[in-house]
Every structure is written in structure tokens, then in C-alpha cells.
């Protein structure tokens, strides 16, 4: 699902929202989440999952073309951990789809 798919879904579910309002709502939520993570905060959405910032320590990598060693600096990267309800829903749905594929074969 893309950002535009999310806007379309929101506008379709809530008829009182115009496409522009739905787009603004999605942008506002994503901007708020980005700003919180930039400040180092953790975001938790019950039943869905949590977003946090993980630290990747500095390390030595290799340039694939030349093979020479390259120093890679420390990084902070976003991390998503799905919640229990989401994990179970995905697992149940994929098991259901896998069962349907087995029956067709």
C-alpha cells in the first residue's frame, strides 16, 4: 500500500472527507511521526506496532568494486516492531492463503 492508496482508502471510508482533507490528514500524521522519531521518541500504536530509533555502531566495510576497506560511521535508523495482534492477523491470513493454494494444486 502506498501513501496515495492510504489517502484513497481514508477518503472512501469517510465520505465527509474530501480527497484534499484525507491527503492533509495522512501528511499530518506521517509528519508528526517523523518529527517524533527525529527527536528520538518511540511511537507505539496499540494493536499495530511500535516505531523506534536504533543505533548502528561504526564499522569497517568494503568497497565492492575495489575491495578496499572503508570506515562506515555510526548511524541512527528507524525500526518497526509489529504488535502481537498484527503478527497474529498476518500469520492467520497467510496460513489461510497458503491453505487455499495447496487445495488448488
From TrEMBL:
Belongs to the bacterial histone-like protein family. Heterodimer of an alpha and a beta chain. Coiled coil: none annotated. This protein is one of the two subunits of integration host factor, a specific DNA-binding protein that functions in genetic recombination as well as in transcriptional and translational control. SUPFAM superfamilies: IHF-like DNA-binding proteins. Keywords: DNA recombination, DNA-binding, Transcription, Transcription regulation, Translation regulation. Pfam families: Bac_DNA_binding. This is Integration host factor subunit beta. It comes from the Bacteria. Gene3D superfamilies: IHF-like DNA-binding proteins (4.10.520.10).
Amino acid at each position: 500500500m502506498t501513501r496515495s492508496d492510504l489517502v484513497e482508502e481514508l477518503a472512501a471510508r469517510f465520505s465527509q472527507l474530501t480527497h484534499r482533507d484525507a491527503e492533509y490528514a495522512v501528511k499530518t500524521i506521517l509528519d508528526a511521526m517523523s518529527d517524533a522519531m527525529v527527536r528520538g521518541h518511540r511511537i507505539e500504536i496499540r494493536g499495530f506496532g511500535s516505531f523506534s530509533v536504533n543505533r548502528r555502531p561504526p564499522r569497517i566495510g568494503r568497497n565492492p568494486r575495489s575491495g578496499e576497506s572503508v570506515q562506515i560511521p555510526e548511524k541512527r535508523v528507524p525500526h518497526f516492531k509489529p504488535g502481537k495482534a498484527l503478527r497474529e492477523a498476518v500469520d492467520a491470513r497467510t496460513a489461510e492463503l497458503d491453505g487455499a493454494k495447496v487445495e488448488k494444486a
